[in-house]
Amino acid sequence: MTSFTSSPAATALANLDPGTTGMAYVPPARARALFRKGTVASTAGWSTGFAQANLIAVPSDWAYDVLLFAQRNPRACPVLDVTDAGSPRTELAPGADLRTDLPAYRVWRDGELIDEPTEVRRLWRPDLVAFLIGCSFTFDGALRQVGIPPRHVEEGRNISMYVTNRQCRPAERLKGPLVVTMRPVPSDLVATAVRVTAGMPTLHGAPVHVGDPSGLGIKDLDRPDFGTAVTIRDGEVPVFWACGTTPQAAVMASRPPFALTHAPGHMLVTDVPDAVYRYD
Amino acid sequence: MTSFTSSPAATALANLDPGTTGMAYVPPARARALFRKGTVASTAGWSTGFAQANLIAVPSDWAYDVLLFAQRNPRACPVLDVTDAGSPRTELAPGADLRTDLPAYRVWRDGELIDEPTEVRRLWRPDLVAFLIGCSFTFDGALRQVGIPPRHVEEGRNISMYVTNRQCRPAERLKGPLVVTMRPVPSDLVATAVRVTAGMPTLHGAPVHVGDPSGLGIKDLDRPDFGTAVTIRDGEVPVFWACGTTPQAAVMASRPPFALTHAPGHMLVTDVPDAVYRYD
Questions:
Q1: How many domains does chain A have?
Q2: Over its length of 280 residues, how does chain A's per-residue pLDDT go in tens digits?
Q3: Mutation for testing the B interface, residue in A60, A68, A84 having most B CBs under 10 Å
Q4: Checking DSSP bridges between strand A160-167 and strand A258-262, what pairing results, if any?
Q5: A Pfam family this protein belongs to (chains A, B) (predicted)?
Q6: Nearest-angstrom CA–CA distance, B263 and B250
Q7: Containing structural domain, residue B235
Q8: Is ipTM > 0.90 here?
Q9: How far is A75 from chain B (nearest CA, A)?
Q10: Which residues of A sit within 8 Å Cβ distance of B?
């Protein structure tokens, strides 16, 4: 991947309605600098117009398992970049340090969550391979533009994420359930939400499920497995998109000896304009 | 991937203009049976409405290199499926045997082409991992529908493929140049060709280059590196798409100890309707 011009993002930003939060206008490099210095926040609503990414880093002898798992489950795990072993650099954000520039991390040993630090410099082993995976926060700006302001951004919360009863297609030693995000959408805008997000297949694309949480095995929308619950208003339908937290569910189910991930909702803010990933 | 209904493909077939060759109406399973019994032919123009795929199989200790190379060069190497080690089965065509059902294969040792057999049963090692990669033959039907009948199909030839002066992004031990296919397109239909193929990003997507072969380091369009030359008429522009033969060029440049591939232009005809891969 070569360098990207910022003009598509600049255009997108110029078209934003004024209801956007202040975080929307923070440039990606500035957002990362804040996180590097210790700011801890969900990146939902930050740096609108730029792609965000999930992180999972594993020892190199597990790298093929993760890459194949992603290839076999592309709705949940659209791979945007893979680092060379040991390198904390990604082409998605050339100035970023993956060890420090996300707001919060999770540390996993044998599938158990053992820590949630704000930087992982000392844990970044020379054999770690990091995968940057597309994030649906990226299309929240596009949804806002078509009249579907994401409720979690409106309410200043992390998004709601749920572990479903759908199993991913396994790959080598990796298996686990599909994780989804949920956004409440007015009934008359569900088709619009489908159309807009279908045009971004490498950012999870169209919803995997619309309405009826029980069809995904979700018992109570008010009790998400990751993130926070949001208000669902009368006339709104819960719409579910595949989520890049799915690899963390696979870590829990498959127990690799070591893994580092972002904390759910606390993403890498990249320098790549989201227009780069649009096919519509 | 689950089973596919054939209705989108059936619709596409019903809409085909009558200029299509007889091969266009051969169902995929019948095409594969013919190839299994010894028919050797370029699959260009065969089984219109169904996706075709490039094949590269390598020992499992090279599988990560290939998968990462594909992830880093998605225009040339859009991965549609990866087999488990030793298995000759793919979800793209549940009844197919990858060892026999392509019209022709290439056998590579240390980066040297040593044979071009019509089946590879005895060469299919227990540690072989096969990658099925999208093929631009798949969108030839869509181009025909918008008034751009592919010249190589009209002339009953294999397509023209060229090794370019553009280097792919390396991955582990794999490196090599981008290979492209070329289709002559009337000047007033170039934009249409771009639009139609851009909607199929996992089948190489939009052209990588339009006109001026020297810009890709191609000295003579009449002397392709793979396949056969086709006629370019007055008022037509050569249009270049990334090609799934690129992994073979990487094999030549990177010299893995062993690899099996399809022979250029002699693809796996899958059971997957091409509509499955359309985003437009």
A1: 2
A2: 333 333 333 333 443 443 445 788 899 999 999 999 999 999 999 998 899 999 999 999 999 999 999 999 999 999 999 999 999 999 999 999 999 999 999 999 999 999 999 999 999 999 999 999 999 999 998 898 889 999 998 888 899 999 999 999 999 999 999 999 999 999 989 989 998 999 888 899 999 999 999 999 999 999 999 999 999 999 999 999 999 999 999 999 999 999 999 999 999 999 999 888 887 5
A3: A68
A4: unpaired
A5: D-Glu_cyclase
A6: 15
A7: 137-247
A8: no
A9: 11
A10: 1, 63-64, 67-68, 71-72, 79, 82, 169, 198-199, 201, 279-280
Q: Specify the CATH number for the domain of residue A113.
A: 3.40.1640.10
Residue A129 and residue A160 in one domain = no
Task: Give domain status of residue B15, yes or no.
Answer: no
Helices A63-72/A246-254 angle, 10° precision: 130
**Is B215 domain-assigned?**
yes
- One domain for residues A129 and A141: no
As given in the structure block, the two tokens for residue B82 are 């990866």
List chain A residues with CB under 8 Å of B133.
Answer: none
Q: By C-alpha distance, which of A15, A22, A27, A8 is closest to A270?
A: A27
Query: Cα–chain-centroid distance for residue A6?
Result: 21
Cα separation of A159 and A153, whole Å?
A: 8
CATH of the domain at A160: 3.30.2040.10
Are B199 and A1 in contact (CB < 8 Å)?
A: no
Residues 6+ apart with CB under 8 A from A34: A26
Q: Are residues A132 and A258 part of one domain?
A: yes
Between vectors from CA B31 to CA B144 and to CA B199, what angle results, nearest 5°?
35
User: What distance in Å separates the CA atoms of residue B45 and residue B26, rounded to the nearest whole number?
Assistant: 10
A145 with A118, same domain: the answer is: no
Residues A141 and A130 in one domain: no
Query: Mutating which of B64, B65, B204 best tests the A interface, going by the most A Cβ atoms within 10 A?
Result: B64
- Can you list the residues of chain B whose pLDDT is less than 70? 1-21, 280
Does residue B98 fall inside a structural domain?
no
Residue B180 lies in a domain: yes
Are A148 and A222 in the same domain?
A: yes
